[in-house]
């Protein structure tokens, strides 16, 4: 799991930086951060045992019976937690951890966005998790450590709107890269305003207007 939780520094020039709706400056791109998979995994597992996350999933998913931390092998396939459901099946939850919640910052630093992965491996043009239909994920949970704010989105709906909009969002919002020395490759994400992601989901899946 690629974790961009630490590559969203505070905006330097106000609106337009990291998820605020304006065009990025020409050539603007953050210097790639360096994280190996085990470092990324430790970031996510650092809160995997958190009662806050477990209690949250039990509270917001109707019919949830218990929450189980996934094995490392399933983490690589897009599962941080398994939620046992009363229907007799398990739901796969991919948890994206952000250390700082920029929506809580005063203007012009405010940025309420979601990090969506464009490329898992830029050099080999391997699509990111947000465009990967083969992921076993059922829901994606974003969790901000400092404010305990959260956002839970069905994965297939998210994948559907990202397939249609990623190039537009890449041109409109910041899209930093992250370097993983373990395999000598770069990943790339785009920070999209949370309200725009939900608006796109409603437009695509909300049904035909009356």
Notes on the structure:
The protein is an alpha+beta fold and 210 residues long. It has one domain: Trna Endonuclease, Chain: A, domain 1 (3-Layer(aba) Sandwich). The protein has 5 helices and 10 strands. The strands form 2 sheets. It has a 5-stranded mixed beta sheet with strand order 1-9-10-5-6. A 5-stranded mixed beta sheet has the order 2-3-4-7-8. A hairpin with a 4-residue loop joins β9 and β10. α4 crosses α5. The longest helix is centred in the C-terminal third of the chain and has 18 residues. The chain is globular, with a radius of gyration of 17 Å.
| Number of E-state strands | 10
Question: Whole-number radius of gyration?
Answer: 17 Å
Biggest beta sheet attributes: 5 strands, mixed
Order of strands across the widest beta sheet?
A: 1-9-10-5-6
Number of domains: 1
Topology as a string of helices (H) and strands (E): EHHEHEEEEEEHEEH
CATH class designation: Alpha Beta
CATH architecture descriptor name = 3-Layer(aba) Sandwich
Catalogue the unreliable spans.
Answer: 8-30, 35-48
Helix count, DSSP H or I runs of 4 or more residues: 5
Shape: globular
- What is the helical fraction, as a range of percent? 25-40%
Strand content: 25-35%
Overall mean confidence score, pLDDT: 83
